[in-house]
Amino acid sequence: METKALVLDIDGTLTNSKKEISVGTKKGIQEVLKRGHTVILASGRPTAGMQLYARELELESYGGFLLSFNGAKIINCKTGEVVFQKTLPSSVISQLFNFAEKRDCGIVTYLGDSIISGRRMDPYLELESRMNGMPIKEVENFIEYAEYDMNKCLMTASPEKAEQFVIELNNKFSDCLSIYRSEPFFIEIMPKNIDKATSLERMLSTIGLTSKDIICCGDGYNDMTMIEYAGIGVAMGNAQPALKKIADYITDTNDQDGIITVIDKFILNELS
After folding, report:
1. pLDDT of the residue at 271
2. CA of 259: how far to CAs of 6, 64, 159, 226, 236, in Å?
3. Where do the H-state alpha helices sit in 51-91?
4. Alpha-carbon gap, residue 113 to 168, rounded angstroms
5. Which domains are seen in the chain, by residue range?
6. 216-244: buried (b, 16+ CB within 10 Å) or exposed (e) per residue?
């Protein structure tokens, strides 16, 4: 039996619109694990915001990995080992904050179980807090406070403005940062050459797998690299149109248990 890795984005993919893993999806994923395959959760979320789902799927017992911050940090769930991580260059933090102030957009980073904010709250930051189950800590001087190694910053703006800001940020920082949207209103700011695909490539060799052995499922802009990289790249039925265009297969939506269809078609039936 060929070992496979099932790589799952969380929001809009693993979870339904209520941010819950359905009973059927959970059962299907655990069957994959019981058969000796690997499950990797790959998200733009901070590590702390992924732990709830890792525990629910029992990845600590079965073995599995968390690829958080769009790949800037990878955790082995069974051992707790940090397999890989990369941090933002400290020299850009003040420039990013000044950009956010000038454009009047939100900016946060992460520390432990908290989200660190240096500007006013907005509905998108409130959503980020709710999704991850992490409180927002507002600090008076973001630049001085953020003198620690950070894996990611997140900027927030309306979809129309965020699209333009991504262009501006890439024009300014493309030599040292990777910048893209996950949701239309979330601007992910990562260390250079960090995305889900490059981090998957780094870790797969450590578990004896290659890109042809992985099935990646996602719905957002930040899933595009791993969908292209995977042996089988799957777009959810609710995925962004750009993602559907490059996917090998389009499954049902996250509210229709689209992951179950993928598991049945490409893992359980394929290998039974």
Report:
1. 44
2. 10, 17, 27, 16, 8
3. 51-56, 59-62
4. 30
5. 5-86+195-271 (3.40.50.1000), 90-191 (3.30.1240.10)
6. bbbbbbbbbbbbebbbbbbbbebbbeebb
Instruction: Answer whether residue 244 shows pLDDT above 50.
Output: yes
Using only C-alpha atoms, the chain has a radius of gyration, in whole angstroms, of 18
Amino acid identity of residue 243, one-letter, is L
Q: Record the pTM.
A: 0.91
CA 89 and chain centroid, separation: 20
In the block, which residue shows the tokens 């082995």? 76
> What mean pLDDT is predicted for residues 110-139?
94
**pLDDT, position 73:** 97
Predicted local distance difference test score (pLDDT) of residue 91: 93
Distance CA 241, CA 223 (A): 12
**Closest residue by Cα to residue 246 from 218, 227, 222:** 227
Encoded tokens for 15 = 């979870």
Q: How far apart are CA 81 and CA 95, in angstroms?
A: 32
What tens digit of pLDDT does each residue of 81-116 get?
999 999 999 999 999 999 999 999 999 999 999 999
Residues 6+ apart with CB under 8 A from 95: 172, 173
